Amino acid sequence: MVSKELFKASIHVLICIGIGSCSLLYVAEPANHPEALFENFWQSFNDDYAAFEERNIDWNNVYNQYRPRVNAETSEIELYNVLSEMIKPINDGHVALMAMPHGSIDANNYFREKTDDALFSLELVRSNYLHPDYKMLPDKYVYGKIDSHNIAYIFFDVFRADAVMLDAMLKDYPDVNGYIVDLRHNGGGDVSYSFSFLGRFITGDTYFLRSKTKNGKGPNDYTSWYNWHLTPSGSLIKKPLILLTDRYTVSAAERMVMAARALPNTLVVGDTTNGTFGTKISRELANGWFYSYSIQKVEMFDGKNYEGIGLPPDVWVKNDLQEMDLGIDRTLQYAINLLK
């Protein structure tokens, strides 16, 4: 393992071309002072961030506004506040700054302010709706039958290996009237974990979105568009599928909603999704602070870009705190009423 000290040291690289022709390449360690950190942060977004246009951000104006506030005497906490203010207007669920011990900031308004965060409770679903024999891995997933109704339900927190429980639900509950996939408060991940599940609801290849990725520093430097398709997998399921969404349905979860929109016999119920679609990457400043942003543009099969807007549901239903105190999940109840 390379030591932290060695990693941070200046780098000398010996380059040899052919035989007997070698030269020493010197790569300086990135400067670690307030002005250099600001410049590095701003330039990195300028080179790689993919959604300035969709989110109506003039990044050059941001530079002109905030650069005068940083000088050689700027403290770490002052720099943290400046960088935080710079990214807040972006309002992107993939944009964040982690500057410990000073704090961390999410650019997305919902994540930062916890707006409507209390309008989803997995404990309420487990206690008031699921049959007691449900399967669960705490803080990961839960799936089972809706108590007293012949409906299968699943919630999982992010798209990772645990999302294969989507297929387990189909195997365990083949004779239900329909399926509910709860994507409320789903933090994203890798949407491909849902493909084998979604492939059970189609009979042929189904195009559902396209994406292109930044591959250069210019504003128009992108790869060619890549088309995303679902393919059939396993025996066909003709039963209805309902997805539940809210403002915390983000990233890969939103891509699953895009895919579901291309399927027959599928409905989306709840609130508009977060509006954060592109692949996220993380960077590190010379002082050890980390930040993240998206490097992709994504369009749904309808040719529209929903970045910064979110995907509206087919049926808009939003929970109510007073009803939740009585054990009622209005969004889930609406889906149940459709399927029972």
Rough outline: globular
Which H/E pattern describes the elements? HEEHHHEEHHEEEHEHEEEHEEEEEHH
Beta-strand percentage range: 15-25%
Report the strand count: 16
- What Rg is obtained from the alpha carbons, in whole angstroms? 24 Å
Strand line-up of the largest beta sheet: 5-6-7-8-11-12-16
Query: Which class of secondary structure composition applies to the elements?
Result: alpha/beta
Major sheet description: 7 strands, mixed
Which parts are unreliable, with pLDDT below 50 for 5 consecutive residues or more?
A: 1-24
Measured as a percent range, the helix fraction is 25-40%
Number of helices: 11
Write a structural description.
This protein has 340 residues and is of the alpha/beta class. The protein is built from eleven helices and 16 strands. The longest helix has 15 residues, at 34-48. Mean pLDDT is 92; it is low at 1-24.
